[in-house]
């Protein structure tokens, strides 16, 4: 039944889909209006080598620039996420030249001096906000650059967390900053030095190295398949933390509670 | 905001949404009272699997005619890949092989997570590394991972439970030694990532904020909002670029064949420059296969969550060289692929959405499965709902699915949770005018993971001397079905192990000097002898989407 519903509706779709004109690198093509720039290019017969990766808005490979007919503004986006519009003039940006600094994360300190020395162009920011307007992830790029200038590495790390490193901000910046590389460094410094370390993790690594789980693993690996299945079926389930944050398991034989 | 997009759900779907909204208060009250939809028992689970899981049903498969797994029944798409000819003519290459274009200690094929971790550890152990990768460095399934990475590091948990969950999730077909390595190394790996500067979700004291996933009995999932893969991959890529002297990365240079020397050991590979169409020869003392999975083969006609280059290349290359495949019968269909909007068709809705409280709801507004069943079972339940029970929701594109009731999340965990914990998903739908914190999503299973692959031992060594493997290209760790968060874990655990082992191997084993493609000649001869008549070549490198409208993959049934 459901298959039929699908067949019927699919049939309907093809007759209803409107074709619209777009211009890829100046050449005109008619494509269905529901496509993204990425699939529209494929529809038009292009095969992507560069300019395509995850097809899902996270890898930053498909930076694209376009202009709508009659609109003076140059627009930027991710080709795999942006839907085509009539009379869209578009081009792909297959590569963004940028310089990543080389450093030893273990020898850095999480402060403005560390970052300022490695990326001195930081100080050139004009606070014009061009970068934020272009970012396809809606990141306040200028704000994270300004946070860095104030030495607020944690702020920069948090603000830039969803950066795809597509490079559009750097292409637009009149002061020629390479914002996304600075943010990368800030996030690493934050993760390594500013976020407190997980003590339970440290403890567990120590216990494993001391061999405290070895006998449990030996035991479970020596079980017959049937015994293993029984233990699997009898597992005690921890509730989600919003249900009972203070939950304690009844079976403690296979835990190390020290 | 995307251009030219009429925003949000069309009226016919809004009508359906009302049915979901109607039952929501009551469902919310039940969850708050800790009353959940009952999980299926193992027997019940097996029953739905047998009737509705795409790979348990007959059809879409055939008996393989060549190589180490000859006689085994595999998906047609995989059999097609294996029963095919090399892209290159071995005879035309003999001269080229005498003068390699690159020489290195270790050649890593694939620049995703497994390749990156192997490279960093091989370097640490004093090796020179070349990474050859098909697209850009980092363009991979790893960068797309959303939900989290498992490790038993809380006091109420232990590797013992992690082991048990993993074996059960895989229907007890996993290789126990690999599962032991996976679960015992897990905390070590999370700590290594912390040292590299990965931003994990933590509370103010530094405790990891951990959640559950399908089929796991303890909270064990470490995350970085809903983009743990991107977070990890960009850190690793950054770290690799801090060592340009020792690690060289060749982008847009997929491997098209392995090379074998006179001692029968793998000693390099032929690469293909996707942009200039030229070949190059790399000679190496060992090769690590880290080419990832096969989602873009669209097994059984399903859409996929995978990245553009996931065409199963490593399977074809290593199989030709004689490495057997294990656990290849069942692919993983993730229960929650996007159905609407069409532009995101097939893309993943992370399991974390259900971990946080979203439920499966049918067209009549009724919950029909526990939100955290193992993936294969959850997928089968959705397929049953949409076929036999005829309770699916039909999107304007004609594709059907069920509701994933995301507004439950903010109601359970506080306003703003969706925007904070699922920031990437939130934005992905917001672009099309859908606010997933107040409106549910339509989902249907989508091809997600390879499950099986190259046979390896607990140090990532294959049966062929000189050839190691790590990551999604390998099999045995997850048995017939992988649990959420165990794959990001496996690429690290085995990436590290392989990086360490390969340096021992290079020191201990004396290798030959003459590179050859003899194994390709024999494989071709085998194809001819067994009567496989085909013009297919493998690896296929990039899927062919040219001149196809929005990717619509009808479901073979
Ligand atoms: C959308 C999505 C979400 C996921 N979420 C999670 C999650 O939350 N938790 C979890 O544990 N797992 C998750 N997974 C699974 C997990 O991300 C992958 O299984 C894992 O990252 C695979 O890593 P890999 O290094 O083996 O392969 P990949 O990361 O895919 O890397 C393979 C690399 O090999 C390259 N390559 C391919 N062919 C060739 C060739 N012929 N020559 C050279 N290079 C080649 C590719 O270009 C790529 O760079 C998710 C997967 C997807 C797709
Ligand atoms: S901050 Fe810059 S590099 Fe990052 S996503 Fe935005 S535009 Fe792209
Ligand atoms: S575009 Fe450049 S100069 Fe302008 S705010 Fe952004 S970083 Fe500063
Ligand atoms: S292809 Fe990855 S962001 Fe578009």
The helix-strand sequence of chain A is HEEHEEEHHHHHHHHH
The end-to-end span of chain B amounts to 37 Å
List ligands, each type once.
Answer: flavin-adenine dinucleotide, iron/sulfur cluster, FE2/S2 (inorganic) cluster
- Using only C-alpha atoms, the radius of gyration of chain B works out to 23 Å
Task: Note the overall shape of chain B.
Answer: globular
- Which segments of chain B are poorly predicted (pLDDT under 50) over 5 or more consecutive residues? 1-6, 549-557
- Gross morphology of chain A is flat
Beta-strand percentage range of chain A: 5-15%
In order across it, which strands form the biggest sheet of chain A? 2-1-5-3-4
User: Quaternary status of these chains?
Assistant: heterodimer
Low-confidence stretches of chain A: 1-15
* Annotation field: number of helices of chain A: 11
In helices, the fraction of residues of chain A equals: 25-40%
Number of alpha- plus pi-helical segments of chain B: 16
Helix-strand makeup class of chain A: alpha+beta
Look at the helices and sheets of chain B and give the structural class: alpha/beta
How far the N terminus sits from the C terminus of chain A, by CA atoms, comes to 58 Å
The most extensive interface, with participating residues per chain, is:
A-B, 107 and 115 residues
Number of strands of chain A: 5
């Amino acid at each position: 039944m459901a298959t039929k519903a699908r067949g019927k509706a699919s049939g309907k779709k093809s007759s209803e889909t409107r074709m619209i004109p777009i211009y890829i690198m100046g050449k005109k093509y008619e494509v269905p209006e529901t496509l993204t720039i990425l699939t529209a290019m494929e529809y038009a017969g292009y095969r992507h080598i560069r300019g395509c990766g995850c097809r899902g808005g996270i890898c930053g490979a498909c930076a694209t620039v376009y202009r709508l007919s009659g609109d003076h503004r140059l627009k930027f986006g991710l080709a795999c996420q942006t839907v085509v519009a009539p009379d869209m003039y578009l081009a792909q940006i297959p590569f963004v030249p940028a310089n990543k600094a080389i450093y030893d994360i273990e020898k850095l300190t999480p402060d403005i001096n560390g970052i300022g020395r490695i990326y001195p162009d930081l100080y050139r920011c004009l606070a014009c906000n061009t970068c934020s307007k272009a970012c396809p992830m809606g990141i306040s790029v200028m704000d994270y650059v300004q946070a860095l200038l104030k030495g607020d590495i944690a702020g920069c790390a948090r603000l830039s967390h969803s950066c795809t490193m597509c490079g559009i901000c750097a292409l637009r910046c009149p002061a020629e900053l390479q914002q996304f590389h600075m943010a990368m460094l800030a996030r690493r410094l934050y993760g390594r030095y500013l976020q407190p370390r997980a003590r339970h993790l440290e403890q567990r690594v120590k216990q494993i190295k001391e061999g405290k789980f070895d006998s449990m693993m030996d035991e479970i690996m020596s079980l017959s398949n049937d015994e293993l299945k029984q233990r699997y079926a009898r597992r005690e389930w921890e509730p989600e933390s919003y249900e009972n944050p203070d939950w304690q398991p009844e079976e403690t034989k296979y835990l190390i509670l020290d | 905001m995307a251009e030219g997009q009429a925003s949000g759900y069309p009226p016919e779907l809004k009508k359906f949404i009302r049915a979901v909204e109607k039952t929501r208060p009551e469902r919310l009250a039940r969850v708050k009272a800790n009353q959940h939809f009952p999980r299926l028992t193992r027997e019940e689970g097996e029953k739905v699997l047998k009737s509705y899981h795409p790979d348990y049903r007959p059809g879409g498969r055939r008996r393989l005619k060549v190589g180490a797994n000859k006689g085994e029944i595999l998906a047609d798409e995989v059999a097609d890949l294996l029963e095919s000819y090399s892209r290159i003519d071995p005879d035309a290459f003999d001269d080229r092989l005498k003068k390699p274009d690159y020489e290195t200690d270790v050649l890593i094929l694939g620049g995703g997570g497994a390749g990156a971790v192997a490279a960093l550890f091989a370097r640490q152990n004093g090796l020179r590394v070349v990474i050859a990768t098909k697209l850009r460095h980092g363009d991979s399934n790893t960068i797309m991972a959303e939900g989290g990475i498992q490790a038993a590091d809380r006091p109420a948990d232990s590797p013992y439970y992690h082991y048990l969950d993993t074996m059960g999730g895989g229907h007890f077909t996993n290789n126990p030694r690999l599962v032991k390595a996976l679960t015992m190394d897990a905390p070590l790996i999370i700590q290594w990532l912390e040292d590299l500067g990965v931003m994990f979700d933590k509370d103010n004291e530094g405790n990891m904020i951990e959640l559950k996933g399908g089929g796991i009995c303890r909270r064990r999932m470490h995350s970085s909002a809903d983009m743990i893969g991107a977070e990890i991959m960009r850190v690793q890529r950054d770290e690799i670029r801090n060592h340009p002297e020792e690690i060289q990365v060749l982008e847009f240079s997929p491997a098209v064949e392995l090379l074998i020397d006179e001692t029968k050991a793998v000693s390099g590979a032929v690469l293909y420059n996707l942009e200039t169409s030229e070949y190059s020869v790399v000679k190496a003392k060992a090769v690590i296969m880290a080419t990832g999975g096969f989602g873009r083969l669209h097994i059984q006609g399903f859409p996929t969550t995978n990245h553009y280059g996931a065409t199963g290349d490593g399977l074809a290359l290593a199989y030709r060289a004689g490495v057997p495949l294990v656990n290849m019968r069942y692919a993983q269909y993730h229960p929650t692929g996007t159905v609407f909007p069409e532009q995101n068709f097939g893309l993943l809705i992370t399991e974390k959405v259900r971990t946080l409280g979203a439920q499966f709801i049918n067209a009549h507004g009724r919950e029909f499965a526990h939100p955290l069943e193992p993936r294969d079972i959850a997928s089968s339940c959705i397929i049953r709902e949409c076929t036999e029970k005829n309770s699916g929701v039909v999107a304007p594109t004609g594709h059907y699915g069920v509701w994933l009731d995301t507004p439950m999340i903010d109601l359970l965990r506080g306003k703003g949770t969706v925007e904070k914990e699922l920031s990437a998903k939130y934005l992905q739908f917001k672009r099309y005018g859908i606010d997933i914190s107040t409106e549910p999503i339509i989902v249907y299973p989508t091809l997600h993971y390879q499950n099986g692959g190259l046979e390896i031992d607990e140090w990532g060594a294959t049966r062929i001397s000189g050839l190691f493997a790590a990551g999604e290209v390998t099999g045995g760790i997850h048995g017939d079905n992988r649990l959420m968060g165990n794959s990001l874990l496996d690429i690290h655990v085995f990436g590290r192990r392989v990086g360490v082992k390969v340096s021992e191997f290079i020191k201990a084993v004396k290798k030959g000097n003459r590179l050859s493609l003899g194994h390709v000649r024999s494989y071709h001869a085998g194809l001819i002898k067994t009567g496989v008549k085909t013009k297919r070549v493998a690896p296929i490198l990039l899927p062919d989407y040219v001149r196809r409208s929005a990717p619509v993959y009808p479901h073979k049934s």
